[in-house]
Write a structure and sequence with these properties.
The chain has 3 domains: 209 residues, FAD/NAD(P)-binding domain (3-Layer(bba) Sandwich), CATH 3.50.50; 49 residues, no CATH class; 90 residues, D-Amino Acid Oxidase, subunit A, domain 2 (D-Amino Acid Oxidase, Chain A, domain 2). 51% of the residues are buried. It is 30% helix and 23% strand. It has 9 helices and 17 strands. It binds flavin-adenine dinucleotide. Flavin-adenine dinucleotide binds next to helix 1, strand 11, strand 15 and helix 9.
Length: 376
């Protein structure tokens, strides 16, 4: 079935929100970012409307791997080298705080399981050691795992465990966040595709479309590369094999086991990097074949696949998101480009963007200044 397992639970957009013609803030995109923004802004008393072209969480927020990890697309040692030690530490601290916030808001859609980063070969073992040392030096919780369980031994050569991380049912989480935004007074309009920012009837506009580059700002679209990810889900396995999200080969292989025992596995984009840089939300036989073989090897036998789908995320040149005012358009704000790590960052950046609009910009936003990559 080429639709997301996460989105298969029934849900209806909550009603009761005001239907104001003109709003203070219009949000384009009903994923984690748009809903997080709307929740904070409506909570502060602003009139807010979310326009979602499909359904709430219908984009990457309901189609992802369900990993809720601290940090961003870079590993900690690489972030320290790229951003400098202070900014890297501040970014990790920010995302650890937002993992707590996620736990508070998501209820049982979030499980605090930790996550396991695995090394597939000797060079990756050295990379894990570099991340482990860097995290330890800066006082972050991390554990080396010398013993790998039966399912991993032989296939992987080392592992580090990140205790603060967790596993999400991402669509359930974002629907809950949307319901909170509606309770706070935000309007949620599904099946509402925006073709031009001028049609919005709002004093301020937020673009929260991540990889679904919306055509609303050519300068923004030029700074974000739509990137496709594909996923397969098995029928429930007989036993629990993977207690937390696992990832290897720099995140090109990732998998987790759901509460009901299904294996959710994604990645292998590196088998066709050029063709996977696309906004076309379709599965391909090549990547699906690789995913099926990968899962069969992990489990020791070919499983029954019940769901398969594709989703699009937005990648930036430096793999950090673009969060703040759109250069050249004072009334337009953006939060996009999480480069494949938007579950925690999307919540963090959505809330920080809302706070900036309310006149309280957090210091961390300087790291994500859109002006570094978007020209006016
Ligand atoms: C296969 C896959 C696996 C991933 N795995 C993980 C993971 O395990 N952990 C992690 O942290 N991140 C992961 N990510 C990334 C993460 O899912 C995204 O970064 C995050 O969901 C982005 O949320 P968002 O709200 O910014 O954007 P989205 O959730 O993509 O929402 C944007 C919405 O905007 C709507 N839209 C676009 N244009 C318009 C328009 N003109 N008018 C109205 N609406 C519009 C779209 O329909 C879409 O619903 C993954 C992504 C994919 C695709």
């Amino acid at each position: 079935m080429t639709s997301s397992y996460w989105l298969s639970e029934p849900w209806a957009v909550p009603d009761g929100a005001r239907d104001d013609e003109r709003v203070d803030v219009a949000v384009v995109g009903g994923g984690v970012t748009g809903c997080a923004c709307a929740h904070v802004l409506a909570g502060a008393g602003l009139r807010v409307r979310v326009h979602e072209a499909r359904e709430i969480a219908g984009g990457a927020s309901g189609r992802n791997g369900g990993f809720a990890l601290r940090g961003g697309a870079l590993t900690y040692d690489v972030a320290r080298a790229q951003l400098g030690p202070e900014r890297a530490r501040a970014l990790w601290q920010l995302t650890e705080r937002y993992l707590e916030r996620l736990a508070e808001l998501a209820g049982d859609a979030f499980r605090r399981t930790g996550s396991l980063r695995l090394a597939a070969d000797a060079p990756e073992v050295a990379e894990l050691e570099a991340e482990y040392e860097a995290l330890r030096e800066d006082g972050f919780a991390v554990e080396q795992r010398a013993e790998l369980g039966e399912a991993l031994a032989g296939r992987f050569q080392g592992a580090i465990f990140h205790p603060p991380d967790g596993a999400l049912q991402p669509a359930q989480w974002v629907r809950r966040l949307a319901a909170r935004a509606a309770e706070a007074g935000a309007q949620l309009r599904e099946d509402s595709r925006i073709e031009s920012l001028d049609e919005l009837g709002a004093d301020r506009v937020i673009i929260a479309t991540d990889g679904y580059t919306s055509g609303l700002s050519p300068a923004l679209d030029a700074a974000v590369t739509p990137t496709r990810g594909q996923i397969v889900v098995t029928e429930p396995l007989e036993r629990g094999v993977f207690p937390c999200p696992h990832y290897a080969r720099h995140g090109y292989d990732y998998w987790q086991q759901t509460r009901d025992g299904r294996l959710v596995a994604g990645g292998l984009r590196d088998k066709a990097l050029e063709t996977e840089n696309t906004a076309e939300e379709t599965t391909t036989p090549l990547i699906q074949g690789h995913l099926e073989r990968f899962v069969a090897e992990l489990l020791g036998k070919p499983p029954v696949i019940t769901h398969r789908w594709a989703g699009i995320f937005g990648t930036t040149e430096d793999r950090l998101p673009l969060v703040g005012r759109l250069p050249g358009r004072d009334e337009v704000w953006i939060s996009v480009g999480y480069s494949g790590h938007g579950n925690v960052m999307g919540l963090a950046c959505g809330e920080l963007l809302a706070q900036a609009i309310l006149g309280e910009p957090a210091a961390e936003l300087e790291l994500f200044d859109p002006a570094r990559l978007v020209t006016a």
